Amino acid sequence: MEAFEPVARDLRAAGLDCQLADDHSGSDPRLGATAELIVSGVKVGLLTLGAAILDTDSRTLYLAAQTQRLVQANLAISGRVIEWPPCVPSHGHPMMATRGRRTPLWTCPLDGSISVAIGSHP
Ligand SMILES: [Zn+2]
Known about the structure:
By secondary structure, the protein is α+β, with helices and mostly antiparallel strands. It has two helices and eight strands; from the N terminus they run H-E-E-E-H-E-E-E-E-E.
């Protein structure tokens, strides 16, 4: 799915493999289509793909925020929560998904001048 591609790229940049699988659980259809998100072999939960009326950037932003929540809540390596996507090395927190002027961004929650386009996280 096009809108998820930048999010998948940023997961891979952090060494996390990911897949989307069709969701056949028949969850609430009012929420729109869902897909099961599998990260590094762990089923971390369901992503709501977003109404078709949203543009691709808005869907990417929505998917990035959901993916971050699922990864942080359900994936730990050696018992440690994964701070994904990581902020600058001196900050021990993850970045947050924000709506940039031209493209969706990962932004430092403490310093808005630190940001990187979603899909370009180093
Ligand atoms: Zn920061």
